[in-house]
Structure formats: C-alpha cells, structure tokens
Amino acid sequence: MTVCDNTVVLVTGTSRGIGRTLVETFLLRPKHTVIASVRDTAADYVKELEALSKADGSRLQLVKIESSNSGDPAAAIKDLTDIDHIDVVVANAGGAGEKGVIPLDVVSPEIMTDVFTVNALGPLALYQAVKPLLEKSHAPNAIHSANKDFIAFAVHPGLVQTESGNKSARAMGLPQAPDSQRRSVDSILGLIDNATRETTSGKFFNVIDGTEIPW
C-alpha cells in the first residue's frame, strides 16, 4: 500500500488537547496517513503519539511546526518527500498566550501581537505551504483556507476540557470547561466528513450546538 491509496490528513498542534484527540481518532480509521505537527520532535509526548493505536493501513508521520515561526510550515512540507497529496488540513494550533485571559485594560501590545501571530498569521503560512498538495487531492477539505476548488470553513470547538480551556473557564468563574474533548472532536469530524461547498464552505460553525456563527 502506498500513500497514494490513503486519505492524507494534516493536523497542527497535536501534543495535547483537541489536536491529539483528532490524531487518535483519524489513526483509528483504516488507510489514513496522519501528519501531526508538534513544536518539538524530541519532546516526551512524541513517544506517546508514536505509540497510538492504528487501524489497518494507517500510519503517523510527525513534523515540526511552531506557529509563531512563519518558515516552519514550508520547511515541514518540504521534508514530506513521500507525500504526494493532502486531503484534509486542520489548522488546530493556537492559543491565548502564556498568561491566558487578560483584561483589555492591562494587556500589552506585545502579547496581542504574539496571539495574532500564532492564531492568524500561523494558519496563513500553513495554507500557503500546503496549497500545492491540497490541489492534488481528489476531495480537498481544509479548515482555514480559500480556493475555488476547496471546501474551507472555520469552527469554534466549544469551551473544551483541555488545560487551556479549563484555565479560561476558571477565569470566567466556572469550575471547569463544560465541553468534553470527545464531544468537540466528534462534532468537528462530523463537519469535515459531511462538508460540501454549498452547505459548509466559507462558514463559521459552533460545533457544540451545530449553529452557524455570523461573521
């Protein structure tokens, strides 16, 4: 079996949380090649990712992408010498900064710039890097992309029970985030699996309640 036979999925930000759960779930689907980006390929969590269960014909390939480094996505794609196409891209990497939720009256311009770089410019650099391989897919799906041949949409995953999600929830006075990782990931995958240009592309969805968010 070659990679040409597989559905090829790229997920960024996979060391923990939603990204890791997405990788776990995709690997349990037969004939899937899952490209998982991490910030440090020598970190302890890499061994845990490599040990994840895999369905028949599925495999994991790790690449280094630090979303604050605009050159990382292109370098990562260049290293994927055996990948001839990508079918699905999930630009999951992101964050609210090291200090989390900060009131507007005290947040610094530097922190705002860092958050913008990771959450806005990071997906832009990723899209520019993966576009040639997406164009070789028979059914390209991308979250955070724009092309007349692509199905592209944005999602709000919910306030999810991850380390950062629970931290944000506590800042709002909640004991923990209300939405489980499993519920969020299953809803995201449901959108990806059933996406069409007519009903999904160009839209922004709250995956927890299934509603479209005006933007």
TrEMBL record:
GO terms for molecular function: oxidoreductase activity. Pfam families: adh_short. Gene3D superfamilies: NAD(P)-binding Rossmann-like Domain. One of its GO terms (cellular component) is cytoplasm. Keywords: NADP, Oxidoreductase. InterPro entries: Fungal_SecMetab_SDRs (IPR051468), NAD(P)-bd_dom_sf (IPR036291), SDR_fam (IPR002347). Belongs to the short-chain dehydrogenases/reductases (SDR) family. This is Short-chain dehydrogenase/reductase SDR. The lineage of its organism: Eukaryota, Fungi, Dikarya, Ascomycota, Pezizomycotina.
